[in-house]
Amino acid sequence: MSGAHDNPVAGSNYHYIARKRRVVEDKRFVTGNGNFVQDQDLPGTLHVAVLPSPHPRARIVLINAEAALALAGVAAVITGDEIAEHTLPLYHGLPLPECRWFPLAHEMTRYAGEWVAAVVAEDIYIAEDALDLIEVEYEATPAIVDPEEAMKPDAPLVHPGHGSNIIYDGDFEWGPVAEDFEAADHTLSFRARWGRSSTVPIETFGVLAKWDKGTETLNVWASIQMPNYPEQIAAALRMPLNGVKVNQDIDVGGSYGVKRGIKHTVLVGYISRKLGGAPVSLIEDRLVNLASGDAHGPDRIFYTDVAFDQGGVIKSLKIRAIDDCGAYPGRGPFQLGKPIAAIVGPYRINSVHYRPCSVATNKTGQVPVRGMGQGPTNYMIETAVDEVARHLKLDRFEVRRRNLIRSDEFPYLNPTGTKYDSGDYETVLGKVTELANYDDLVKRRDELRAEGKLAGIGIATCLEPSGGNNLFEFLFNPKAEISTYMEGCQVRIDSVGNIVGTMGTTTSGQGHETLVSTILGEELQRDPDDIRVIHADSLAGLPTRSPIASRMAVMLGGAAAGAAQKIKDQLFQIAAHNLNRPIDGLEYSEGTIFDRSDPARKLSWDELCNIAHRQFHKLPEGMEPGLQALHVMQVPLGGQMPDEKNRVQLYPCFSFQAHIPFVEIDPGTGKVTVLDYFIAHDCGTVINPDIVRGMIIGGVAQGIGAALYEKFDYGPDGQFLSGTFVDYVMPSVFEIPYVKDVEHCTPSPLTSHGQKGSGEGGYLGAPAAIASAVNDALEPRGLSIHELPMRMNDIEELLNGEKPE
Amino acid sequence: MKAPAFDYHAAETVEDAVGQLAEAGDDGLILAGGQTLVPMLAMRLARPSVLIDINAVSELAGIEQLDDGIRIKTCTRQNVALNSQLIGESIPLLAKALPFIGHHQTRNRGTIGGSIAHGDPAAEIPLIAVALDASIKLQTKNDTRNLSAKDFYEGPMMTLRKDDECLTDVTFPIWQEEGKLGVGFQEVSQRHGDFAIVSVAAQMVLDGNNVCQRVAIAVGGAAGIPVRLEKVEANLTGSVINQETIGDALTNMADFLDPVEDQHGSAAYRRRVARVMTERAIWEAAA
Amino acid sequence: MTKRDITLTLNGKTVSGQADPRMTLVDFLRVVLKATGTHVGCEHGVCGACTIVLNGEAIRSCLMLAVQVESQEVTTVEGLCEEDGSPGILQDAFRDGHGMQCGYCTPGMLTSVHALLQSNDDPSDEDILEAIGGNICRCTGYAQIIDSIKIGAERLREDKS
């Protein structure tokens, strides 16, 4: 099984937290009783199929849907003109009034696969048959595909009204960069390229919408994972926000950031209302999902300069980051902003100059992918560290030790204004080195090399910012004056003593029901297996920012703990009133409250609940009947805006992982095999060990995918080349070794139980670690590669290809 | 990704199947394992008027021992072939290649004949068929004919099978030469079970002095069809097999290949890898 | 196109439904027979989410037509449960090993493993990889799935003896 799992918090004595416990959700999944959006079955549901544009850039001259409309079973054919007339453009994170974005292309198509028309029919077969009957006349024009070309003044414009393809171009400087470079013993520069990939869940995005004429409510069921989903739907459909009800008890079949489907939802919401309230369903098939679901991830070029001293200590970084956000930016550009939280990584770097640039091209759009840009940024940072080591001919592990923030330096204020809450990086690095049996790995590597193979050991030490905070938006857009980043949890004890916890958002495999029931059980000292956790719909509504940003353990966990505390307070007050004792004379044990001085005098859980619900005459003065509490937690250290030097506390809690992969490369084919993978992870207190281990290893696997296999390829003319799973290749069990992991725990001082997030860390460091290993393997040949993914073709070309004169 | 409408007929006999095919004109397709055809229907890349399902035609499944070959009926499942002792003993090259094909789920339905008839340039079974000069039987309502696998493939997914022909069986010859028979199969793919980017099949007979009595080498993925390396074969036949002779034989091997170029491999990559894989396959066959 | 009548044995019971010839088996199971445990992931035979057991063998139900299962025996994830619908031994093992997160690939994973364990009750590590090599999981990175399979195999052996 996994590496050792210690009792994570020294001195703690948790009953349920940190214990191996079954994950609540698993029971319904193993029996095939998950409640996924495709499982919804409303009578009279109409089905939507979308017609893709074959051109990356074209004017829509004419759409003739007559024959499609005449097909029996077709209820409607919608085009961009109709949508543009009746809905408002979809939301971009930045103010981009000239980059109008609608669910269906309006006047122009801007990427190959963009939806040009939608057929609504009795069943999906008829809908797709009708697609075949729609005639579209296009006037194709040359597309712009390369982001650096797109930045040039004479490039074809994706949005002519915007005047250029540059969506955002920022310039941030923290600390004395010029002085640090001047004073440095050495500098080096490199270019690193993070290829366009995504976390592509096995379930595609799907949504079912039903306009209820009677209550004038739009009911939505969707495979969704994002903040402000009801807000964006309501805005585009020009409905009042309190007329949109998103049902959040739908099981989401994986998301890792990408289940955002706003255009899908606006489309079906519009159609349902237009057709008098018929339920309307749009389930992406895989072709649509890959080409036009707008769910691609960062596509980024880094030009980085590093200033460092003779001993390999890095003083300063200059970073130019250019990211290709595709045709409709949405929140894509902010994936350049979030990483500011940890732009110096876990290192004692003194100053940073960061120039992020988001560029539009004729490709489908980006959504925040697991880590929202921290993965590519960590890849760049770790490349810098390895390059410094290479330059000075020092050991990469040793260079890290010299740069890592020490355990006595916490909380550590980094140059961008963010304090890292806690950490013990050196110890975690030591743990992974020990787990990997490093000396033995070196021997194995050398043996393979002696056989004529290429073999390498990688190292990456990376941060996972967790807890969530949106202030990077303000850094990019001074109009976004938003400092609230909250999560709510309601706890209700019913009249017979059952506990119900309510959360305000969806779950996509992170085990939130387990998280909440475990924490409630711990605080209330009641068995979590008897605690039911439900998801409020968006109207019943709890304040939420959704499960993004590795925030739920911190925020939902904290909100649950806060709500439980309120319940306990209320129980104590009832007991004090009825036992006629001051609260500090009472003891709580597993729901029973007894008089410390005379333990026979007590009130049981059932008695307390009965009083609360039914015996008003026994309640203290002013107490409301019933036993329920809502706690809304603001993100720790949140609530301040950036200062005039653009310094601000971004995320509050920082998890840390150290990765050591061991790889072999076949020099004849360029194929990389990951022989072994070791990871030490520190996310503070572990609420559920199986969940955390799953998050870590799952993230590593997706990271290996991004490093070695996955890319959305576009031809030079803008044609989309990764249309199926034959071309977009995700790792199977054969490509992922049995990852060995070990925990460490430095609790966060900021959270309810010392927990930090763990949902992203595997993914945030694995690509960097694999790149480190591949470059270690190439080292004896004097070669290196700084572009992901490192596919067989790329590595073999490097090894054996024709060298330019 | 829902298929366009088609008619469906579950054939009971071979006659039934070819009769239906004839009626369909140029519009009917045979449904065997479906592992390739059904995705094509889902993507609307195939739009037959009728699908003629041969899975229930008992005459079309089975593995037979002939005097000088093994006849495999078209609808024999790849997993059945993989577990066949007869194939393991008599056509070791096919036995070696079968585990590389897809996954157990696809091999439980996918058929030997279906793969050969479809002619994907990256597929393993057509490669073996070309390497061994298998004989392919095609049957219509009124006629049968046999084609050599070497001639059967014209281009990617383009074969000499006519619209009204059903591929009914494939016979793999058993080499009769004296000496030690060895086989080699090398494949490069992104992941385990994927279609090959480049694949090489080699079968060789060596005498007691390591002199090659007969050799067949075919390369897949390096042209639109599987390619026999006839010049290399001629070069190696009669030679002792060692590093030098192999190296000599493979010089200019790239000239016989005309690989596609795509995001999974440039043409240059495929040429270089084909050379590496061929050398490995020959060594494997010589071991 | 006229719909065909199809009768088959699904999880031990005789069931019937109607389908156009072009309807795939996975769509037939989900939409007509309302057995929604089996999931659709790609519809071109790569991801394995749709895996079911047909006459004892694991196959991809997105690559079969509904009409092809006339009179055949199909087992889906629901069929691995106890009579009362509670998790069976293998399913319980996946709970103890936390061999899933989002649950979407899980039914296909379970049927693939079920097919393996029916024919090989003491699989080697290689056998396990072969059994699930055609099932993509994006959540777990596979380690806990492998753990769960080993727990399940051992418990099923114990149950037999």
Main interface by residue count: A-C, 60 and 57 residues
Count of alpha and pi helical runs of chain B? 12
What is the CATH third-level topology name of the largest domain in chain B?
Uridine Diphospho-n-acetylenolpyruvylglucosamine Reductase, domain 3
Spatial arrangement of strands, main beta sheet of chain B: 4-5-10-6-7
Oligomer category? heterotrimer
Jot down its keywords.
heterotrimer; B: 287 residues; alpha+beta; Uridine Diphospho-n-acetylenolpyruvylglucosamine Reductase, domain 2; Uridine Diphospho-n-acetylenolpyruvylglucosamine Reductase, domain 3; Enolase-like, domain 1; five-stranded antiparallel beta sheet; 12 helices; globular; C: 161 residues; Ubiquitin-like (UB roll); 2 domains; five-stranded mixed beta sheet; 5 helices; 35% helix
Please, could you describe this protein's structure?
Chain A has 805 residues and is an alpha+beta fold. Chain A folds into 3 domains: 37-141 and 205-283, Alpha-Beta Complex (Aldehyde Oxidoreductase, domain 3), CATH 3.90.1170; 300-471 and 641-799, Aldehyde Oxidoreductase, domain 4 (2-Layer Sandwich), CATH 3.30.365.10; 486-633, Aldehyde Oxidoreductase, domain 4 (2-Layer Sandwich). Chain A contains 20 helices and 31 strands. In chain A, the strands form 7 sheets. In chain A, strands 3-5-1-13-10-11-12 form a 7-stranded mixed beta sheet, with helices on both faces. Chain B has 3 domains: 7-53, 2-Layer Sandwich (Uridine Diphospho-n-acetylenolpyruvylglucosamine Reductase, domain 2); 65-171, Uridine Diphospho-n-acetylenolpyruvylglucosamine Reductase, domain 3, CATH 3.30.465.10; 180-286, Enolase-like, domain 1, CATH 3.30.390.50. Chain B has helices at residues 14-23, 37-42, 78-82, 85-90, 92-97, 104-107, 112-118, 124-131, 149-152, 230-236, 243-250, 267-286; strands at residues 7-10, 28-31, 50-53, 63-65, 69-73, 135-139, 144-148, 153-155, 158-159, 166-173, 180-188, 198-206, 212-220, 227-228. In chain B, the strands form 4 sheets. A 5-stranded antiparallel beta sheet of chain B has the order 4-5-10-6-7. In chain B, strands 11-12-13-14 form a 4-stranded antiparallel beta sheet. In chain B, strands 1-3-2 form a 3-stranded parallel beta sheet, covered by helices on one side. In chain B, a hairpin with a 2-residue loop joins strand 8 (153-155) and strand 9 (158-159). The longest helix of chain B has 20 residues, at 267-286. Chain B is globular and about 60 Å long. The N and C termini of chain B lie far apart (47 Å). Chain C is globular and about 50 Å long. Chain C has 2 domains: 4-78, Roll (Ubiquitin-like (UB roll)); 89-160, Orthogonal Bundle (DNA polymerase, domain 1), CATH 1.10.150. In chain C, helix 2 (89-96) packs antiparallel against helix 5 (143-160) and helix 3 crosses helix 4. Chain C has 5 helices and 5 strands, in the order E-E-H-E-E-E-H-H-H-H. Chain C has helices spanning 25-32, 89-96, 106-119, 125-132, 143-160; strands at residues 4-10, 13-19, 51-54, 57-60, 73-75. Chains in contact: A-B, A-C, B-C. At the A-C interface, helix 1 and helix 18 of A face helix 2, helix 3 and helix 5 of C.
